[in-house]
Amino acid sequence: MSSSPSQEQQPETGNLPVPTINLRILLSLKEAAKIIGLKGSTISKIRENNTVKIGISDKVPGCSDRILSCAGPINNVSNAIGDCIEILNEIDFDTNGNVLPSLKLEKYSFHFLNNILPPPSSAELKPPSHGNDEQQQEGEEEEEVAEEEIDLNKIGTVRLIISNHHLSSIIGKGGNKIKSLISKHGVKIVASKDFLPDSQERLLEIQGFPGSITNVLIDVCEILLNDIDVNFIPEKRYYPHLSYSNSHHNSHNNNNNNNTDNNNPQNNGNKRQRDHADDYNSNNEFKRNVKIPEIYVGAIVGKQGNRIANLRKFTKTKIMIQKRDGQDDHHSDNDEEENRIFTITSNLEKNVELAESMLLRNLDAEILRRQTKFNNETITRNDNDIEMD
């Protein structure tokens, strides 16, 4: 998830404005589907119960992740995310009533979706504290049997996306703030070492009971709101996308086509599937095949083919686009979505590489444009719901 102080007009209670925040969470495709629910019923219930603006990004062909965005007052947002964790913890059944494997056991090629923290244990985690004296006294009386009663299946994990700048404030000098959060709320917290692909954001992974995570998020939001710097330059945000690597023969890619070498921002994105077997043919021509998801082909080609025509002219290459009726000739069982093959040829390899690079950059730009439009529409679409409540 990524989180940033909200710039929207803040709701008021009496004469005092209520601080608002926008948090973003990284989800797998299955996690996103479970939170959305049948025809959006589950996420709608979360939105109504907590009076927040909440939505999940569109599925991007070839990517194994989506982003949940939740905006509103701090307590509301934190409670909404706690509800999401409880939903993910629920047991699923197939049509025959058999219990399905927990999503917690899933392993992903896109390593950011895999838990950084080890499996939970009752010795390290504790249920949320409610803070009043009576409950505290009751808690002390039950302390001896607490470990036996703890159900580890109720423990969940959340992946909060945080800008590198804000993450430093959450960790604190010498890790003092993050250690305090861990001790105070009985949770486990760790920050990812790597940046999310093509961004300046990292993950803050929090493991614990939903209520405990809710309480941690409230404190994290307070830190973020107090960390506003007028001189701060916004860092590049992460969004699920397909990128490319300069290393044509790097085979260390995953289902999300994101390379595991995350120290190089250029290598952090999703590498397109390209066919280099025919890089050089008998006609003294260099050739590259690039797969473009069908839903983006129109934008890449442009109105009346103007955009692709300009690309051909600028790079001095020939670019042939696979026809729809030939889709089956190139379709692979591993393809999650329909793709069209763009074949680039030229007698100069550098021209082919330039055309390939520009083609993929145009695709990235179009994906980002649609993602930004979705995020803006999600916020606008839910404004009226909050006002009516």
From TrEMBL:
Compositional bias (Acidic residues): 135-144
GO BP terms, alphabetized: intracellular mRNA localization; mRNA stabilization; telomere maintenance via telomerase
Chain spans, region Disordered: 119-144, 244-285
GO molecular function: mRNA binding
Record keyword Repeat present: yes
Record field: compositional bias (Low complexity): 244-270
CDD domains: KH-I
Entry keyword set: Repeat, RNA-binding
InterPro entries: KH_dom (IPR004087), KH_dom_type_1 (IPR004088), KH_dom_type_1_sf (IPR036612)
Residue ranges annotated for the K Homology domain, each copy included: 19-89, 154-225, 284-364
One Gene Ontology CC term in the entry: chromosome, telomeric region
UniProt keyword annotation of RNA-binding present: yes
SMART domains: KH
Protein name: K Homology domain-containing protein
